[in-house]
Amino acid sequence: MKKNNHKIFNDTYLRNVIFVLAITFVIEILFKLLNNFTIFDYSTLRIFLSTSLLSLIVVFFSSLTKRKWLRNTFLLIYILLYTIYSWLQLGFINFLGVFISFHTSSQFGAVTDYIYDFFMSFKLSYFLIFLPLIYFIILYFVVDKKREYHQIKLNKKYLLLIPTILIISLLYYGTLKLSFMQNKLQIKNNMQLFKNPDVPTVAVNQFGTVTFAIMDLRSFIFPPEELDTTFKIQNNKENENVSRQVSKYLEEIALNEGNSKFANLNNYFASQTVTDYNDYTGMFEGKNVIVILMESVNEAIINKEYFPNYYKLYSKGWHWENNYSPRNSCATGNNEFSAMTGLFSIYNTCTSNVYKDNTYFEAIFNLFNNKGYTTTSMHDFVEWYYKRKTIHPNMGSGKFYGADTLDIETSSEYGEWPSDEEFFEKAMDIVLKNDDNKPFMTFLTTVTSHQPYSVSSTYGDLYMEEFKEKGYSTTVSRYLSKLKVLDNAIGIMIKKLEAAHKLDDTVIVLLADHYPYALSKNQIKEMLDYELEDYEIERTPFVIYNSSMTPQTFKDYNFYINLVPTLANLMNLEYDPRLYMGSDILSNDYESRVIFADGSWKNEYAYYNASTSKIKYYTDKEYTEDELQEINQKIALKIQMSSNAIKNNYFNYLGQKLLEYEQKDNVVDDKLEE
C-alpha cells in the first residue's frame, strides 16, 4: 500500500495537480477571509471544484513541454496572475467599493490617474495573499530543483482526464442547481449569476476570484441574454383610490405590445403603485430649482465653524439624517445618472457612458421642460470621464455647459481640479441672465473636492495649514481645504441669488455623488464620530432648502434615486410615479429603505448584506424568512427591470408609444367635435 502511495506521489502530473490545486485553493480561502466572507458553506465546495478543474487543465498543458524550467515557469505565471488578480480585487473592493469588471474597462484610463492613492489604500493584511505564491517559488525553484522531471506522454492513463473532468463538472453543476445548496435569501440565484455575473460582490463570494474573472470575460465578449422573466400585468389595488392623474395609455400599450422584451417592461411599470398627492404636493410650484451634486462629500461638511454657507442651508432647510450615496462602478457618472432618471444604473457597467445615446422622457430636465422651465446643466471639467455633452441633452437639458463652454481653465495634471468658486460665479451669471421670464432649473456637478488628497494641489493646500492647526492629518486637511472651496462656492451662489432677488423664489437641493473613498476609514474617523461599518461609511448629506420653509429633520432612510419623484411632487410637475425605481420620500406611503448597488439594503430595523446573504438587526423587530425573501425579490426585480429598460432604450420606445396613442386620441376627439 505504501509503495502505491509512493508511486502516486511521484507521478509528476498528479503531484503537480495536487500542489497547484492546494496553492490556488488557499489563495481563494485567504481571499474569503480578508473579505469577511463565510468559509463554511457550499460556496467553498463550489470554489474547490472550480480550482480542481483549472488545476487539471493548466498542469496538463504545462506538462506537455520537454523542459522542466519551461513547465515551472508556466505554472509560476499562472499562480502569479492568480495571486495578483486576487490582490487587486481586494484593493478595488476596499478603495472603490466594487470588484473590478471587464464591463468597466472603459474607465481604466481614469483609474490610472489616481493609481498612487489606489495602492496607498491597500491594507497590510492584503499581502497575505502572496504567501502561497512564495511557497510555490520556494518549493519548485529551490527545494524541488533537483527532482527528476518526466514529460507526460499521451497514453491511456491520461484518457482518465476526460471522465474526471466530466465528473467534477457535473458535481459543479449540482452546486448550482441542488436546492439544499442554495441560499433562499440570496439576491440572485447561482445559476443566474453563473450565466451573467452582473452582481460582482455576490458572484465573487459564490464562485471565487478567478472563476468570476472567466465568467466576467465571457459575458463581456458574449453578452448574455436578458434574464427570462415573464412579468404579467397585474391589477394594483392600491391605485384604485388614488387621486393623482397618470397616463391612461400605459396599460393599453402593455396589452397590445407584441415584442416580449418591451411587453415585460410595459407590464412591470403598468403594475407599479401610483404615489398619491400629499401635504407637500405643489409646495414650491413655480419656484426656480438648483440641484447641486457635490463631489466626494460626506457628513464632515456639516460643521458650522468650517463650512458656514453649507450649514446655513442645512440648518434652515430640510435634511435627512439617514441619507446615503451608494457607490458602484463609475460612481460619479452612474450616481448622477440615477439622480437624474430615478433608475438604478447597471452595477457592473459605466451606464451613463455605455448607453449615452439613450433618451429618457421621464428624466428630471424633461419634467421641468414640460412645466415651462428653462433647463441647464453644468460641470467644471472636460469630457475625460463622462460624455455629458451627449448624456445631459438626451435627458432633456436645454443646454449643457462644460469647462470649455464656461471658459474655465483645466490642467492636464491629475489632481489640479478647477475651482468651484469660479464655476459658481460663471454658472450663476448664466442662470440669472434668463431673459424669457421663465423659471429656471439647473443641475450643477462640482469637482474641486475630488481626490487626490495625499499629494499637494492648489486647492488642497489652500486652507490645509488652518485644518492642520486644528489637529487633522495632512491628507485629511487637504480634503477639508477642498471642501472649504466648495463651501465658498455655495456662499457665492447665495449672494448672487440675494442680489438678484431670487433667493426666496429658489429651491436649492444639495446631495453627494459619493463619500471621499480615497480616504481610509481611519482618516474618515478623524472627521466623523460614528462607526463606519454596515455601509455607514457611505452616509452622505441631503438637503432641500427654501427661505420660506420651516427647518425639519427627517429620519427616513433615503438615497439619490428618490430625487426626481420627490422634486416632481414638491414642484407639482406632471409625472407618472410608476416609471421610477425611486419614490417620493415625503409621501405618506414612503418605504424607508436605502438599497445599495449589489442589492444590500438598510433601514432603521436591519442591515441585509447581499454578498453574504446575512441579516443584522438593530432593534427587537425581526423579519420572517418569507418577509426577507419578499423584500429581496422585490429589490432584485427592480434592479433587473431597470437594467433591462436601459439596455433596450425602453423610455425612448415608451415616449414614442405614448405620443402615438395620444395623437390617435386627439384625431378621434377632433372627428367627434366635427
Provide structural commentary.
- This protein has 674 residues and is of the alpha/beta class.
- The chain has three domains: 220 residues, no CATH class; 99 residues, no CATH class; 348 residues, 3-Layer(aba) Sandwich (Alkaline Phosphatase, subunit A), CATH 3.40.720.
- Helices cover 47% and strands 9% of the residues.
- The strands form two sheets. An eight-stranded mixed beta sheet has the order 4-3-5-1-6-7-2-8, sandwiched between helices. It has a four-stranded antiparallel beta sheet with strand order 9-10-11-12, with no helix packed on it.
- Helix 18 links the parallel strand 3 and strand 4.
- The longest helix has 28 residues.
- It is globular and about 90 Å long.
- It starts with a helix and ends with a helix.
- The N terminus is likely disordered.
Features:
disordered N terminus; 4-stranded antiparallel beta sheet; 8-stranded mixed beta sheet; 674 residues; 12 strands; alpha/beta; 3 domains
Structure summarized in a few sentences:
The chain is of the alpha/beta class and 674 residues long. It has helices at 2-10, 12-34, 42-62, 68-95, 108-113, 115-120, 131-143, 161-177, 190-195, 200-207, 209-221, 250-256, 260-270, 308-316, 331-341, 351-354, 364-370, 388-394, 420-432, 458-462, 464-468, 474-499, 521-525, 563-570, 625-647, 650-673; strands spanning 288-294, 318-324, 374-379, 400-401, 440-445, 506-512, 542-545, 552-559, 594-595, 601-602, 606-609, 614-617. The protein folds into 3 domains: 2-221, no CATH class; 226-274 and 625-674, no CATH class; 275-622, Alkaline Phosphatase, subunit A (3-Layer(aba) Sandwich), CATH 3.40.720.10.
